[in-house]
Structure formats: C-alpha cells, structure tokens
Specification:
Blueprint lengths: L5 E6 L5 H16 L4 E6 H5 L1 H17 L1 H7 L3 H6 L1 H22 L3 E4 L2 H14 L5 E4 L16 E4 L2 H9 L7 E3 L14 H8 L7 E5 L8 H9 L6 E5 L4 H10 L7 E4 L5 H6 L3 E4 L3 H9 L4 E4 L5 H11 L3 E4 L2 H12 L2 H14 L4 H10 L2
Parallel strand pairs: 1-2, 1-3, 3-4, 4-5, 5-6, 7-8, 7-10, 8-9, 10-11, 11-12
Helix pairs in contact: 1-17, 3-4, 6-7, 10-15
Length: 372
C-alpha cells in the first residue's frame, strides 16, 4: 500500500489572492491524489493573530490614505536591509508554533503562496538542517526581493520575465519553474455562453462589460458606471462589488436611472462564468484576477493599481499587449468605446492573452509537490 503524502500550504490574509492561489493548489492536489492529506493555513493568523489584525489594518490604511508610502517601502533594497533584523526576530518568535505544526503534521512538502511564510519555513529549515521540500509560488506577475531564500527548493513564476528577475537575484535556473499563477481549476473549462447569459438575464448578442474592484470593492466604481452610461453604443454592464456592501446598496438604489442593462453583484463564486460572457473586464491588476482574465482570453482595462505589486502587474500586462490603462473614469469611458468599436484591436488582445495564459498552473504545482 502506497504511503499517504502530506502537504502543508501556507498563505496570509483570508480574503486575498494568496489564499485563492493556495486553495487552487490544494484542490489540484486532491484531484491528482485523492488520498493526499493537506493542511492549508493562514500563517499570520496562526503564529501572530494580534499582529495579523494590526498589519492588515495598517496596510489598508496606508493603501487608502498614503499610497506613496507603500510605493517607497515595496521591494526597496534599503528597507529590506533595515528590516532584516526584525524579520529574523519574528521568525525566531514564530518558530515554536511552526515546530508544533511540522512535528504534528509531518509534511512531505510545503507550498507557500506568500513570501512571509516562505521565509519562516526557509529559516526553520536552515536552523535545524531540515530536509523539507519547499515551494515558493508567486501570485503576482513580478517577483520582489523578500522572496529570496537559499533554502527554497523551487520557485514557481508566472512568466519567463519573472524567471529572469529571480536569476538576476542569484536564484539558479534549475530551481525556477515557469508554471503560471495558480487559479481555480474551473477556469480551464470552457462554459456555454448562451446558458450563462440566460441564467443571469443577459443578452448574449450584446457586448458585456465586467467591472471588478477586488474582494473589497475598491475604487470609484460609481463614477465609472456613471461615465460608462454616457457612451452611446450598446453594451451591458456587470459590476462585482465583492465584500463592499455599501457599494452594492448604492448601485442598486441608482440602477433604475440607467438606460443600459446593469447587473449588480456582491461576493460571487462564478467569476469564471462572468468572464466567459464578457467582452472586456475593467479591473484593478491583482495577480489572481488578471491570471483568471487571461485564462478566458479577456482583454483588460486596468484602473487604480496599488503602488508596488499591482503597479508591477500593470506594467507587465501593458507590455504584453493584453491590457490598456485608464487614469480616471472619463478615460475608462473613452478607452472602452474605442475598444468596442475596434474589433481588430480586441481580437489582437485576445490572441496575446491566449498565448500568455497558463490555466493549468495549479495542477503543475501539485504534480511538482507530489513528485509525479
């Protein structure tokens, strides 16, 4: 009888791309090997529940009120050197709880979708000379220096461009796998467009425009909807508000004023279906959301990237020709009208997305972790 394998997965922040990526890999592990045992944990919450709340609150406050501060802190070599001692101290403090997990669960491999838990495991491996295969999985299109640890056995990157960045930081080419950003397995399946439209009450022959503000429904979405309403060509609008209940309530109240079909949604589980029937998505450039859009060959209008990781994502997607960037709501309306009237441009963006997408990343990562 074959020995049952155990895989530890670690992310940070519950409603995040890191968590969605971790869950996608966990699903793939069970798809490949139904007997595999997995433990998928929020590393911040497990090791420092109070610190997690403080950091999350601080991060959201900085992003909303002082984005230029985050832009300075993100992937800054000076900041990295100055916080090295603090990072080491946090890792030492967390090592007792980490030891409890590793000794009780006894994983055959560890997969981290965020740099913080990856660093914790790497330091633990180094200090105890532990032979535990460690996979660091990027969930954005560009790496940063906080990922670099000698004890990581494999890095999974979204593209050849990010692979080159790791190699410039001294990571051996043999350690880098260009598998893509892991997304839910359902995104690799083609859906029936007419059936999806029917379920949502959407007309299949009229273009659909999807607006996404991330899990928090961030950005001036109401201004966007008002600006798009002024475009004098036919299309339908679907807005995903995520966890932002106020935004959903406000849009619902105002929907009767709009001439165009407007579908207002909260936190949904069928993003794959919404993307399947969309002509264009207007979105912040989060790693998971943009990887999902690529899997559906969906052109993107990028808005309000967070300085740091999202700004780097935007730069990559613009360079690849799968997205355009809007500066404000009026710019969004102008770009959308231009794209909807230019099938040649839209088809070229779809073609580039088709070349760039890697919808099987989660399965490839699971196979690597399981050694199959």
């Amino acid at each position: 009888m074959a020995e049952v394998k155990r895989v530890l997965l670690m992310y940070i922040t519950l409603n995040s791309g890191h968590h969605r990526a971790s869950s996608a890999i966990e699903m793939a592990l069970h798809e490949i090997s139904p007997s595999v045992e997995t433990m998928n944990i929020n590393a911040f919450k497990y090791t420092n529940p109070i610190l997690e709340k403080v950091i999350n609150r601080t991060y959201m406050g900085v992003i909303k009120n002082k984005p230029e501060v985050w832009e300075y802190l993100y992937d800054n070599p000076k900041v990295l050197r100055s916080v090295q001692g603090l990072r080491d101290a946090i890792h030492r403090y967390n090592s007792k709880k980490l030891k409890m997990i590793l000794e009780s669960f006894r994983p055959d491999a560890c997969i981290c979708t965020q740099a913080f838990p990856c660093g914790m495991i790497a330091d633990y491996k180094k200090n105890l000379n532990l032979n535990l295969p460690l996979l660091g999985v990027l969930t954005d299109h560009a790496p940063h220096s906080y990922w670099i640890f000698r004890e990581v056995d494999y890095y999974v990157t979204p593209s050849d461009e990010s692979k080159v960045c790791f190699m410039k930081d001294g990571v051996s080419e043999s350690k880098i796998k260009v598998f893509g950003i892991p997304i839910d397995l359902k995104f690799s399946k083609e859906l029936d467009k007419n059936e999806n439209c029917r379920k949502l009450g959407i007309e299949p022959e009229i273009p659909n425009v999807l607006i996404m503000g991330g899990s928090q429904g961030l950005g001036p979405v109401e201004d966007m909807v008002d600006a798009l309403e002024e475009i004098d060509i036919p299309f339908q609008l679907m807005v995903v508000c995520g966890l932002n209940k106020r935004l959903r309530k406000d849009l619902d109240k105002r929907s009767y004023r709009y001439r165009k079909k407007l579908l207002v949604l909260g936190h949904v589980e069928n993003i794959d279906g919404l993307m399947e029937i969309s002509s264009i998505v207007i979105t912040k450039p989060g790693g998971l959301t943009t990887a999902e859009a690529l899997s559906k060959n969906l052109p993107m209008i990028i808005v309000h990237p967070i300085p740091g990781q999202e700004a780097k994502n935007a730069e990559f997607l613009l360079n690849q020709g799968v997205a355009v960037k809007a500066e404000d709501s009026e710019d969004i309306a102008s770009l959308l009208q231009e794209l909807l009237l230019n099938n040649t441009k839209l088809n070229e963006m779809r073609r580039r997305a088709s070349e760039l997408k890697k919808p099987n990343a989660a399965m490839d990562i699971a196979k690597l972790a399981l050694g199959v």
